[in-house]
Each structure stands twice: as structure tokens, then as C-alpha cells.
Write a structure and sequence with these properties.
There is one protein chain. With 244 residues, the protein is mainly α. The chain has one domain. Helices cover 77% and strands 0% of the residues. The N and C termini lie far apart (49 Å).
Length: 244
Amino acid sequence: MHPQTRCVSSLLRKWPYTFIMPFFVASLLLLVPLDAAQAHAVTQGDKGYIQEIFGVQLIPFTYLGAKHMVTGYDHILFLFGVIFFLYRMKHVAIYVSLFALGHSVTMIAGVLFNFGINSFIIDAIIGFSIVYKALDNLGAYKVWFGVQPNTKIVTLFFGLCHGFGLASKLIDYEIAADGLLPNLLAFNVGVEIGQILALGAILVAMGWWRRTDSFFRYAYTANVAIMAIGFIFIGLQLTGYFVA
């Protein structure tokens, strides 16, 4: 067993220690404006544009989808956790495709059938997905419960949750019914383009980092930091839910 793996396993057996850093960092949420909680929101300018146009507008919606994904830090952080220990491109493709499938199905179906979930609740679940994946990367479930959840099924499930997050926002924006389905499909294509661009940059950075000795040395710290940000998301969204 790698020395880093033994160290991580030892730390994970000490529950309080494992969560000290995440909760400490998450306490900083008190300094963050509540508006920052809107991880799935589009800009005010884009919102106005979406509400004003009608008919089939493929290029604008493709652009908006790509922009949403590239600037959607909750999506990016979850995917970063997913590919953190994936070394083969075929494995990256499988997990990213599962996430994209789930995201696409609930986003399109949610808007078409006008089925949304409270934005604060679904975004809190998305924050939980980040925490979950960080713990998975640390091997917490195997150490704590003696089982390893099926990561493919979990990735698909959280992809569905992420899609509902965006669907809830789009429903609030009342997109015109004229050209709705083509525009949603174009938006989804844009989301996948943005996902490829974001992942490409992440994979280049990860490839460089993995070639250094610091990767295994700081893998634990990196995932604890990811977990902390996930807790921040959860705290912001739950605060917004009760305050709003």
C-alpha cells in the first residue's frame, strides 16, 4: 500500500479530524453574499434575452449553454472530483457521458413538462454531490462502512440532480413556447461543448500535476478542500431556503 494511502486510511478512521478542515472553511460562508449561492443562475443580461426572444434560436442558445457550463463552478467542481483519479481517457469518457446523460434528461424533461424543484433545495443537493465525491475519492465509504458504492450509478444520479438545478432556473425564466424544444436541444449541445472545453483544461492541468511527486502528497488535502467548498454550497443554499 502506498504510504499516502495508509495515511489517508488512518485519518479517515478519525471522523472528527476528517471534518475539521471542511467545516472550518465552510464557516467562511457567513462572509459570502447570499447572491453567490445561485450557482445555476444565468446573468441578468442573459435572463432578459431569454425572456424576450421567441422562435428557433439555435446559435444563441448554444452559446448560452456553453457559457453556463464553463462558468458553472458547481458542475466543474463535481466533474473535477469525478476525474481526479481517472487516468485512462475511456474511463473519463464513460463517467462524463453518464453525467451528461443525466444532466440532459432532467434539464430537457423538466422544462418541457414544467417540473421543477425548489432552486435552493436542488442546489443544496448539488453541493452534497461535491462532498460525496470528495469523500469517495478519499476512500471514506470503504473505510467507514466496508462497501464501495457503484460510482457509475452515483455519477448518473447526480447528473440527474444537476439537470434539475438548471431546469428549475429555466422554468422561472419563462422561455417562449415557440421553438422551445429546438432551443433546449441547442442549449444542451452548448452545455456539452462547454463541458468538453472545461474538462480539456482540467485534464491538461491534472496530467501535469500527476507527473510530479506532489500529486499523492497533496491528493488528500485537495479533496478535503473540495469537500469544504461543497459544504459552503450546502450552507449557502439552506440559508437561502430558510431566509427567502
